[in-house]
Structure formats: C-alpha cells, structure tokens
Amino acid sequence: MSEHRSHPPRWQFWIDRGGTFTDIVARRPDGALVTHKLLSDNPEQYPDAAVAGIRQLLGLAADAPITPDRVASVRMGTTVATNALLERKGEPTLLVTTRGFRDALRIAYQARPRLFDRHIVLPELLYGAVVEAAERVGAQGEVVLPLDELLLKQELLAQYQQGLRSVAIVFMHGWRYTAHEQAAARLAREAGFTQISTSHQTSPLMKFVSRGDTTVVDAYLSPILRRYVDQVAAQMPGVPLLFMQSSGGLTDAHAFQGKDAILSGPAGGIVGMARTAELAHRHAGEGERSPVRVIGFDMGGTSTDVSHYAGQFEREFDTQVAGVRLRAPMMSIHTVAAGGGSILRFDGARLRVGPDSAGANPGPASYRRGGPLALTDANVRVGKLQPAHFPHVFGPAADAPLDAEVVRRRFDELAAPTGRMPEDIAHGFIQIANQQMASAIKKISVARGHDVTRYTLQCFGGAGGQHACGVADALGMGRVLVHPLAGVLSAYGMGLADQAALRERALELPLAVPHMVALRHALAELGEAAGAELAAQPAGGHALAVRQRAHLRYEGTDSALVLPLSGVQAGATDEALVAELTQAFEAAYRQRFAFLMPGKALIVEAVSVEALLAGEAAAEQAQPLQPARAVPRRDTVRVYTTAADGAAGWHEAPLVVREDLRPGDVIDGPAIVAERNATTVVEPGWRARLSALDHLWLERVAPRAARRAAGTTVDPVLLEVFNNLFMNIAEQMGLQLQNTAYSVNIKERLDFSCALFDAAGHLIANAPHMPVHLGSMGESIQTVIRRNAGTMQPGDVYVLNDPYHGGTHLPDVTVITPVCLYGGAAPAFYVGSRGHHADIGGITPGSMPPFSTRIEEEGVQIDNVKLVDRGRLCEAEILALLGSGAHPSRNPRQNLADLKAQIAANEKGAQELRRMVAEFGLDVVQAYMQHVQDNAEESVRRAITRLAARVRDGSFTLPLDNGARIQVAVHIDATTRSARIDFSGTSPQQANNFNAPTAVCMAAVLYVFRILVDDDIPLNAGCLKPIQVVIPEGSMLHPQAPASVVAGNVETSTCITNALIGALGLMGASQCTLNNFTFGNERHQYYETISGGSGAGGVFDEQGRLVGGFEGTSVVQTHMTNSRLTDPEVLEWRFPVRLESYAIRPGSGGAGRWRGGDGGVRRLRFLQPMTASILSNGRVHGAFGMAGGSVGAVGLSRVVRADGRVQALGHIGSAQMQAGDLFEIHTPGGGGFGLP
Fold first, then answer.
1. What are the tens digits of pLDDT across the range 511-540?
2. Is the peptide bond before 624 cis (omega within 30 degrees of 0)?
3. Pairing between β-strand 136-137 and β-strand 143-145 as defined by DSSP bridges
C-alpha cells in the first residue's frame, strides 16, 4: 500500500516530463500544493529533470536518495518513449512473422504520407532484421502449415548472436489463434532474448498491419522505458512509482509498457482538464442543468494538443503517431504543429508559422541558445510575455530571463523587407497561429457534430493563456476557463488520475443472442485479468471499479464505435443485452454520421474491460467572494493587440500577478495576468473574473468586431490567414462528407474531394485525398454556370457525372451548390463535393468494367441535373434517373444517401463562407479569393523560372500496352515565366475504355506543376494561369460521346503524369498503371489497386544544375492515386481467399546512379470459385529511366492453377478461378535516374 497508516503525512509528487519543460506539482505533508518547472533537457545542470525537481523541492543534495519516509508516491507522465520513437532511438529489434509477410509492415496500406513529394519518404522502420517463420493459420483457425520450431530456433539463435535482444512476434491471425505465437515466444526466451512482445498479448485485435506495428513499437520502446524507469526508481528506493498510460490511467512503473507510453504526458492533461472542469461546473451550479462541455487547449513549447470532453473520456483504438500505426487504447487527442517553439518566417508573400519547431534545444531566439524566431518570441515582441514574469531558467547558469533584446533585433530584420512595423509582423504571426489552432479544434468538434459555441475553452499548458482569447474569438466561443494550475495542469492530472488496467479482446461476432455467451465469457476473463493486474500494484485504499465496453460496427465497414455496457453487470438477459447495445449503437451512430444503415448486421468487433482504483479527488476549497475593488497592479505595460474596434495598436495594460488577486476580482482587458508557470492575456472586449475556487473565468463582454477594415490590398498576414481559412472550409466539408457518406469508398477509402470556387467558378481551395480529383471539379462548376446562367435560385443544388460535360468517370458524382448571400440574386461563390459511389450501374457491379466499349456500359449518365430545387429535394426525379437506361444503378437508395451526404457537406461549406463574409465583408473575401490565386500563380511561375534554367523545350512519347500512345511537347518561356503543354500527336479516341476526359488530363497537368513547387501552396485556379494546355479534340484525351472512359481515370491519368514528367526530365517514371484487380461471384465483390515502384529523380539548383538525387521508393502508391489497401486479415476474414504473400520484388527498379523503387509481388489463393480480372498497363513497356537511368521491370499477371499449370494474362485479362488456384500479380518497378 502506498500510504501506510503508520506513516505520518508525506510528500506526493505529480510530474509531467514534457518535450520542453518538466512540470511538477507536489503535495506537501500539510496538504498544500506547490509547483516547480525545469527545462527537460539541461545536461549541464542535471541528468534527469524529474528527479532533480523532486530533490530541489525536498531540499536534498544532488546525489541524496529520495526515501519513502518522506515521499508517499511519485506519479509521472513522460515523453521518453515518444522522443525515442520520434528520433528512432529505440532498442534494435527483430521481427518474426509469417512466411510471405516479411515486407507486410513496410508496405502496410500502400499510401504515401505526402501527396506532392517527388521523393516519397516513408517512416523509418523500427525493426532491423526479419525472420519469416514457416507457419500459417487460416482466418477460421485451420492450420495450413504447422510451425517449424527447429528451423525457427536456428534462425533466432543466429539473430541473437548478431547482438539482437528484443523481438516482436506477429503471425497472421495470431490475435485469435495464439498457439504459434506462444511457441515462438518460448523459443525466443530459450534463445536468450530479454524483450519478447507477442501480438496476441500486445494488441489482441484484428488488423495485421496496425497490430504488427503496435507489437514492434512495444518491443522497440519497452527496453528504453525500462532503463528510464529503473534509473528513476534507483534514485528513490522503496518509493511507489506510477506512470501515466496513453489511455489516461496510471500503472505501476514495472508494468509500464512501450505501447502504452506514447501519449503519457498529454493524457495527464486531459485528466486534469476533465476533473477540474467538472469541479468548476458543479461549483457554478451548472451540473444539474447541462453536462460539462469543454474543449481542451493544451499549448506547449513544441506543439498544441486539442481535445473534446463532454462528461466522459474519448478514446481511440486505432491511431497513428510518428508514422507508426497503433492499435492500442489512447486518449483522443488532436495535435497541431503550432506551439511556443513554432518557427516563424516570411516567404516573400506570406507569413508562415511552423510546422517546424525550435524545440527545447536551442528553443526560441529568446532562450539564449541562438535559436530561430519562434511564436514565443512574437509574444515577447508585442508585450504579451514579460521576461521579468517568466521563469528565469535560461543562460549558462540557468538563472537568466528571456532575452528581449535579441527578439527586438531579429524582428527588425524580419520586418524590413515587408515595409511593416516589427510589432505588427509579430502580431500577424500570432493571428495566424490562432487560426491554425482554431482549425484543429474544429476538426474534433464542429466536424463531429458538436456546436463549439456552447462549449468552454479550457486553456492550459505553458503557452495557452497567451492565445486563449484569440483562439476563442476565432471559434465564436465566449468563455475560457484558466485553472490556477493551468501552466502545470498535465502534472496536476497525474495526481487526479485513476490507477487503471485495460484489457481488450477481439470477438468479430454478429450481435445476436446466440453469441452473448461468448461476449459474457470474454468480459469475465478480461475483468479477472485486469483486476489481478491492479491487485498486484501499490494502491491507495480505494475500492476497485470495473467498466465494460463493446466495440460495434456495421458489417462490411471499418468504423467501430465504443459503447459502455451496463447490462452485463446489472444481470440483464441476453435479449435485453442485444437490445441495449443496438439502441446505444444506433444513437451514437446517428449522432456521429447522421443516418443509419437499415438491414445491415451489427458486428461485435471487440470487448474491453477497464479496472479502476479511483485517484485523488480535486480538493479545492471555496473561498468567500470579496466585494468589487480596484485590482492591484504590479506594473503597467504596453501590449500590441487588436482593440475592440478591430484595429491593431499599442495599448496600456495592467500587469496583475495572480497571487495578488482575491475571489470576486474583475479585470477588464487588455490586461496581463502573470503567475509562476503561465501568463494569461485578457484581450480587449474580454473580462476576467476570479471565482471562489480561484479559477480564472474569461468572458467576452463586448461584441466581436467585424474585420471589415481589413482592406482589399494584399497583406502578408491576411494572405496566410485566408489561405488557412479557405483550406479549412474545404477540409471541414470533407470531414462532414466522410462522416455522413454511405459508400465505403468515400467513408473509408477516402475517394472523394471537396472544394470552393469564386463567382466565376475558379477553384479557390481543394482538399483532395486522390490527386486525380485535383482541380478537375472546375470543369463541372463551369458547366453548371454556363448551362444555368440567370436561372439559379437560392436553395438550388446541381448534380452531374457526365465525362463529356465536366465529369471524370461515372462513379465519381459531383454535387454543386451555388452560394447566394442574403438577398443576393446571383451566386457569390460555389461549393462542390465529388465522391466515388459504390455503384452507378453498368455491366459489372461497382461500375468499373474492364471490357466496356461505350459509356452506357459503365452506368447512368447525369448531365447537369437539378438535385434540389429552391430547397426541395428532387428525390423522385433522381431515383427515376438512377433507375433508368440499359444498365441502371443497382442500389439507387444508396446513391441517394451519398448524394444527401454531399448536399450536407456543401451546406457546411456555404455556412462557413457566409460566416466569413459576416466577419470580413464580401469585398475583402472576394479580394482575398483573388489574392490566394495570385499567390499560387506566382509560386508556379517561380517554379517555371527554375525549370527554364534547365529545360526550354521538352517532349516525350509514352507508349501504352494497347498500342496507343501519349505524346506531349512542353515549351518553357523564361521571359513570360509560362509554359505551353501540347498533347498533339496523342493517339485518337480508343475503342476500349482508356479514353480520358479533358478534366482528367487537366488534373494530371496541375499535379505535375504542383510537384515542381517545393512548398505547401494552396491548390487553386492560379496554379494553371501560367500554363496553356492544348488537347486535340477527338484524341484519347478529349474523347467524344459515347466513348467509354472508365480506365482513363485510373490508367491513362497516371500515364499522362509520367509522360509530362518525362518531357520535363524531372525523374524516372513511376509504374504507369494502378494494377486494378477485381474478383467476385454472386455473393462477394472486391476491388483494389496495387502499388509498384516510384521513379528515382534528380535535385536541381536555381541554375538548373544537378546537385543531387534520390532513390525511388518500393511498393507505394504514386502520382494520381493514394488509395488504401484492405488489411490482410480483414481481406481473409471477409472473402474466401488467402493472401499467400505480398512482398517487395527485388531488383525490379531500374538501375541508375539512383535506382528506381522496386515493384511488388502479390499472390492470392482462391478458396471458392470466382471470376478475377486485371485492368492494367506496364506489361509490355516498363517505367522509363531518365538521364541515363534504366527502365524498370515490366509487370506480370498470371494464374497458377492448383495442378501447377500456368496461365499468362495480358495487360487486361480475366480468369475463372477454382478453389486452390493462385492469382499472381508482379507490379512494375520505377525507372532509374542518372548513369550508374
């Protein structure tokens, strides 16, 4: 027990070891709380900040032991594991996996992290060696190949002799059928491995890739964590030491695992936020009227974490951190790269904040270590941070204040080329950062159906108070809560957190009465295991509580919702349990996604049980409110900020020290409230009030000023603000569509795009997940404007998919909403959303027929049809249209559900645009719509200037396997900084379906010129202004009806891209295909695109000289697609197939000074008769090399029959598969670059 009765009261320490600072909240023996803050990384002063801080508070010498007679317990959150993961400094690790899957975690889901990088950089692998075990278990538990223990033992010994001591064991379907993993773990122990992580213990849930990554992370980080825990424990022998887990519960130091440590620090902040918000809420008498609703705003030195709390903790079981997929319970936290350390710069047109951070070392310029200008420095420059009232922990002796002089000098230098005052530039950077953080908050609130204006912004973290009012204003929130320990709230949360043990188990069973026995059994076993784990830990005298949850989803989808289960413990019948879960699921699903899927079965994906020992209650004593008075000020300082009338300028502001305040005090902004660990800025128009609990409440008391005085002349601050605002609207529309769509293609494969346009139909901002959607919606908008000129009414919405009138291919359906302002006749803007519907008719399910020759064989054509007429949904008319023609839609009701989701997404965009006009004025918004286009145009012109130094005229002919060719000539005019792209000479319209509408061709052109710009510029119509494109009518890139086009969107688009890249001499080709693979029968249908190698390329300086290069990347989605691949275990669970292997194809990349990326080999065995088809290219002509580099290997598709016969297929082929037959696809490698 941590608090024996024989002991007198002792100290408790609650610690958050963050990336920049280590925060300590200590409870003294008399119950009083004291705080302390140290730099986390200060090797000149101490080896470990947490231990050093405890010694300083106890008054101990630097090497004196910390003993249990003085310290009751230490509770800590640490970034040690996170930093090791980010810096890739974990334990050298061996991966042991199923034969055929050595590359499965490297290939993962095929997607590339950044759409527009020519050099595709994937996260560095955490394991250094791989052993493929001869073993295989099927999806239903059948042993296909017994584990060869003798062979595995030899290979483990060989790796041990190479010095490896940590091993991750991940076998296919090992989450459920554990015998082989258990045997492998035994062999590893016998071989001498000291860290053994098995996937069935680390993350017992389906999904091979994310479970595998989680297991590797555990093996990689646990030894590092163990060494840190031992190092800390050695300094405090006998003192109970608890660590915060990512899930928000504390655990004994020796039970702390790598997989549970990633969000250790931030999780403490969420607990602190929730507990203190509930206390404040109750004390304000609001607890009975409404639940606690707070947005957590935790702004630290390196980043900002935002979170949502409405009465219960929100957790995610599937997330990604530092490029690693994790399938473990974690607090739901959204991180944005805008912290006090975010680096500031001016790029000639826009002020930029982040995403790079100065970190803790060297830190911002004011930290006295020669660092760059950062957001903290901007707050110093405008007077919001006063060095005299900020911790004096800088300089060689760690006792100097922030350096204001270097900040003043550096801002003078930065402001000189802008012609603006330095303080105005610093203020602009703060506005931009506020906008970025507000956008992050919208993603976790507005995008999930929460009305953020009804919430309180709870601000904490060292930098949060300087930005709280600004962020709240950007969101329309009127109330901010600042706890007295806001600067160290994560550390305070460690003290208030429960001790917890969380256990989970995948079930993958239908929600039905016969399966409730299995559910109850799993819950009982998990509860027993979680309880036993807690019982073995040092604990307070609190009673054990158990919380049970079920993870439910619709059959055939991937989005599981986690629901509390009360019925099991209450003794409900099986029937009542099913009813309880169904009702809870439907309520939660409707709230999140706004609709249900009637007729679809519910699946219990998993159950989880959390055993809890309650933590400390937030014991905060209420003090009587004092009468109003003139609040004592320590100083009057000058602050540069936005006044109540919206104009920025210098203001006299009282500097008040928090300790001087008493309950009942009121302070009107502008004012600064300084305390030991945080600074809170009360902006003009806001009022601060100190409550009886010593909580600082900030409330907006004057209406927000409209920013109409902004002016229409381009301003570098507002240019970046509007860039972010426009992009955020497109992203919000996308999240709305993803949340409410019916089709899996939209909801989970992210095959959709949302955009906004000006009154002329020019693209302003586009949030694509698939580059083939880039800018191609512009033609759709132009069609609607042209065909409906003068007849559009407020409330009208249009729909189209016709490839000959602004569409791409028929499954991609575009919905366009004109945005009419109040009382306005003509639309001021347009918003559009395009989504890939699951089926739109045609000769094959899914509307992607490989052998179509006419457009009507691909589905229903929709040409400029009114979907909503002045607010009335034209439901009957649309259903009739979808059900018409020779090959109608197979499920018009499903199409209608997706169309409704698209209407809702567009409405979201329209609302946000109206809100923007209300704030800034129509003339300013329209002016900045032009300015952002001008900025993008200038960025592309600069890229063309760099290109002109290397190539003035280029041409390329790319042959296709079907005998057609794409021919392109590029002329660069250095004088006008423009380019002419001419596709003359391209083959005429084809009798097959490789024809690509002009919208697809323009998307390819925009993509190629976007990858020339090494910067995050907005994608808008300005990018195309310097480019003239000539596409001959009647060619395969400008086909005439009724030509078929379905392959144009996938195959031809990527060929156009590679041909353009060839003409510009940029790099070797990436695979000139998407390898579209389909299989199915009456019961099952499946479609995937399979990645290959990317091309190697050159790096050129401003003069066009080759100064470097990069290798191609193996087995990754390139150029016009970035679609996700179904997880191997999910694929086998849902379909009667067995993935024999998916591996990198060694040597298939083209040779060169820099090699092309290798393709892959995907081998799928069929367990039932089905039809399988391949629609591809690159089987005759490989991906070309560039500058002397060699061509990549061509692809290959074949069927290996169960009796050994081999049937070769062409670039398009179909085969009747029988049980036991194998379909094998070898994808092409990328082209090399430079002479070897």
1. 999 999 999 999 999 998 888 888 877 765
2. no
3. antiparallel
